[in-house]
């Protein structure tokens, strides 16, 4: 398929301070496949390589694999001590045409069920896999170890996907008899391609084998240990899959592509040579692989000490890959084949974001991984793919702040009932979180994730797939807001769940205002698509602000701060990061916005010839992404603000004690209960001002809100 002739650089995406990996780094990784994790172990005859008899035995299985065979034939072919649950290999005979790493792959389905039986694990134990002999039907063994004193091991990160073919391996516990073990095609490929990184006798953790997937109790307990499993592994091998779609070209050429993007310049375009068009297409298809979009990859990457990405027989370190991808995401691609640009964009941005989270988790940057950061991670993860809806919370539970991790982790449940009633899992997760969170921060996700019919309004719908490219926002909650507490009045939330079914939540607070006017939803339809639409929207908002405040200067201050939720700190950070300011001399965007507002007052006639004005307007629009998916509103008490997209006239703006932001609620018909609409920015009450207001200023009496 063809590729567009130019690649345009995105606004504000240029990365600084990252080193493009040199080709020698990739080559050194490829040449280090013989490096062991623990050190070579001996085979039964005392050597470091499989015996000739073992190879003949294995070849016997391979030869018999072309036709159906009976039980006695299998027994004689495999040797004594191997148990087969269903010793029948089916499928039409095929020529062996594909050879990968010296092992012949016979491509037909294998009807060979698992005869292997797991032994129960003790609390704190994990299983580790030893690859005795790779091949068409690998021979492996499992060992139980306590995670706190386990021997050195590697761990594998991969995408489960849907098994296209069923394969088999033979597995034993220590010196017990071997038994057949059904595995996916994907795991078979990994075992035979990663043996260079986990050579004969070394140990590796692979969840599809090391966890008894048929035991929901064990699965829940092991899932809670995954962050520790990956943090203690000497190396994490990210298996992306075998070569396909010219993927063997991608990893070696990433440094060259990154360098070409870098040379294009901040405002330049990149000319694609015909010889490189196929490489760009291969790179986009590379990012289409499921591993780049899978949720379970997140804790595996964030907790790993050392990461190596492997695709077929090509490999690259995490740091080198991340640095190259960060430069590639500074461009916008147009492909002739539908969907490729989206996969390239989302896959690349995912790597960049995972790198940032990894830096926070591992303390490589000053930003603390706080409760707010964990909630941001929960929201960000809603764009990633899962097999089970319950994975939306259990995949990340082990990354929660320490003071609430245990309360959340013990709730993990993979029973059939819990998986089919995942909304109950979400309620239990949110309940445990809120009882340990002094700021009720998780309630902020309600505004961004549409309500599920089986969960109350206070429970975020984590199963909703959130398109972050369209959303593209900086969330309202932030530790610099303190609407429901101050240093002098450190209120703590009073949270109570009123029924065993967890359908009602009671919080304490008061009403501060009522929504009077609701503007258009701020989204792509009125941000950055055309001056006419933008003018109409901005003009309406500005007229509302002038009506509410009367005084021009006061209206301008309230209006401009509201449009970006008073996040001038974020604006300055964006300017400094993008090279538009040196961090010491940041331009005052307020004056820029004054000029823009004045142009609105002059009959929608901004100076189109003013390059400075156009750049300023575009810059301000970029900053207004902070408020995407929020509605501009005014209140009866004389304030402007930003409210969730579901807000309606007559809804109440409330202060919950201890909360960072005000919240919008809607009373039921009888007035005894409320529905939670979501968090809001209401200018003038974001920093504890409402706590000291007198009733005459509009503050309502304290009450207990029963949220259903």
UniProtKB/TrEMBL annotation:
<feature type="domain" description="Heterokaryon incompatibility">
    <location>
        <begin position="153"/>
        <end position="300"/>
    </location>
</feature>
<feature type="compositionally biased region" description="Basic residues">
    <location>
        <begin position="7"/>
        <end position="16"/>
    </location>
</feature>
<feature type="compositionally biased region" description="Polar residues">
    <location>
        <begin position="17"/>
        <end position="36"/>
    </location>
</feature>
<dbReference type="Pfam" id="PF06985">
    <property type="entry name" value="HET"/>
</dbReference>
<feature type="compositionally biased region" description="Basic and acidic residues">
    <location>
        <begin position="53"/>
        <end position="66"/>
    </location>
</feature>
<dbReference type="InterPro" id="IPR010730">
    <property type="entry name" value="HET"/>
</dbReference>
<dbReference type="Pfam" id="PF26639">
    <property type="entry name" value="Het-6_barrel"/>
</dbReference>
<feature type="region of interest" description="Disordered">
    <location>
        <begin position="1"/>
        <end position="90"/>
    </location>
</feature>
<dbReference type="InterPro" id="IPR052895">
    <property type="entry name" value="HetReg/Transcr_Mod"/>
</dbReference>
<protein>
    <recommendedName>
        <fullName>Heterokaryon incompatibility domain-containing protein</fullName>
    </recommendedName>
</protein>
């Amino acid at each position: 398929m063809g590729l567009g002739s130019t690649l345009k650089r995105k606004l504000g995406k240029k990365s600084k301070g990252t080193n493009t990996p040199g080709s020698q780094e990739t080559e050194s990784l490829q040449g280090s496949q013989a490096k062991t994790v623990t050190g070579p172990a001996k085979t039964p005859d005392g050597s470091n390589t499989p015996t000739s008899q073992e190879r003949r035995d294995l070849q016997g299985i391979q030869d018999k694999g072309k036709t159906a065979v009976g039980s006695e034939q299998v027994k004689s072919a495999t040797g004594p001590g191997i148990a087969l649950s269903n010793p029948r290999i089916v499928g039409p005979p095929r020529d062996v045409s594909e050879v990968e790493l010296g092992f012949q792959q016979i491509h037909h389905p294998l009807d060979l069920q698992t005869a292997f039986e797991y032994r129960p694990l003790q609390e704190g134990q994990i299983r580790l896999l030893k690859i005795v002999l790779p091949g068409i039907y690998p021979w492996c063994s499992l060992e139980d170890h306590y995670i706190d004193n386990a021997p050195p091991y590697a761990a594998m990160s991969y995408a489960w996907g849907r098994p296209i073919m069923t394969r088999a391996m033979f597995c034993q516990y220590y010196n017990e008899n071997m038994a057949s073990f059904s595995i996916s095609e994907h795991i078979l490929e990994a075992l035979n391609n990663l043996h260079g990184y986990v050579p004969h006798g070394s140990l590796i953790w692979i969840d599809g084998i090391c966890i008894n997937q048929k035991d929901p109790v064990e699965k829940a307990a092991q899932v809670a240990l995954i962050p520790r499993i990956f943090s203690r592994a000497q190396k994490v091998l990210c298996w992306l899959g075998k070569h396909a779609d010219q993927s063997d070209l991608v990893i070696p050429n990433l440094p060259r592509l990154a360098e070409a993007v870098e040379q294009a310049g901040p405002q330049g375009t990149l000319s694609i040579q015909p010889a490189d068009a196929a490489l760009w297409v291969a790179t986009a298809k590379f990012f289409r692989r499921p591993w780049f979009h899978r949720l379970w990859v997140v804790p595996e990457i964030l907790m790993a000490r050392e990461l190596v990405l492997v695709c077929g027989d090509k490999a690259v370190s995490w740091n080198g890959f991340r640095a190259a991808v960060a430069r590639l995401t500074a461009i916008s691609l147009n492909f002739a084949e539908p969907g490729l640009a989206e996969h390239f964009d989302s896959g690349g941005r995912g790597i960049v974001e995972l790198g940032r989270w990894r830096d926070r988790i591992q303390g490589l940057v000053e930003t603390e991984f706080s409760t707010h950061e964990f909630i941001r991670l929960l929201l960000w993860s809603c764009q990633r793919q899962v097999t089970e809806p319950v994975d939306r919370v259990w995949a990340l539970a082990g990354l929660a702040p320490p003071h609430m991790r245990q309360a959340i982790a013990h709730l993990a449940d993979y029973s059939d009932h819990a998986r089919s009633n995942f909304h109950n899992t979400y309620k239990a997760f949110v309940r445990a979180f809120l009882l340990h969170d002094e700021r009720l921060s998780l309630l902020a996700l309600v505004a961004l994730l549409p309500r599920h019919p089986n969960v109350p309004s206070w429970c975020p719908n984590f199963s909703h797939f959130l398109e972050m490219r369209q959303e593209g926002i900086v969330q309202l909650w932030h530790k610099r807001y303190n609407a429901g507490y101050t240093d002098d009045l450190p209120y703590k939330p009073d949270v109570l769940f009123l029924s065993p079914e967890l359908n009602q939540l009671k919080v304490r607070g008061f009403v501060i205002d009522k929504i009077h006017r609701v503007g258009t939803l701020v989204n792509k339809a009125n941000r950055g698509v055309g001056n006419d639409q933008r003018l109409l929207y901005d003009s309406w908002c500005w007229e509302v602000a002038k009506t509410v405040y009367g005084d021009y200067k006061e209206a301008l201050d309230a209006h401009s701060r509201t449009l970006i939720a008073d996040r001038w700190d974020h604006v300055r950070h964006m300017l400094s990061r993008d090279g538009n300011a040196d961090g010491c001399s940041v331009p005052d965007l307020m004056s820029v916005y004054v000029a823009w507002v004045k142009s609105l007052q002059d009959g929608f006639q901004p100076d189109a010839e003013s390059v400075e004005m156009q750049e300023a307007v575009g810059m301000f629009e970029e900053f207004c992404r902070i408020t995407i998916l929020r509605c501009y509103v005014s209140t009866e008490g004389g304030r402007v603000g930003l409210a969730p997209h579901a807000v309606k006239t007559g809804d109440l703006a409330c202060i919950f004690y201890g909360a960072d932001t005000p919240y919008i609620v809607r009373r039921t018909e009888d007035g005894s209960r409320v529905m939670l609409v979501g968090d809001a920015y209401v200018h003038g009450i974001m920093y504890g001002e409402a706590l000291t207001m007198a009733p005459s200023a509009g503050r309502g009496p304290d009450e207990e809100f029963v949220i259903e």
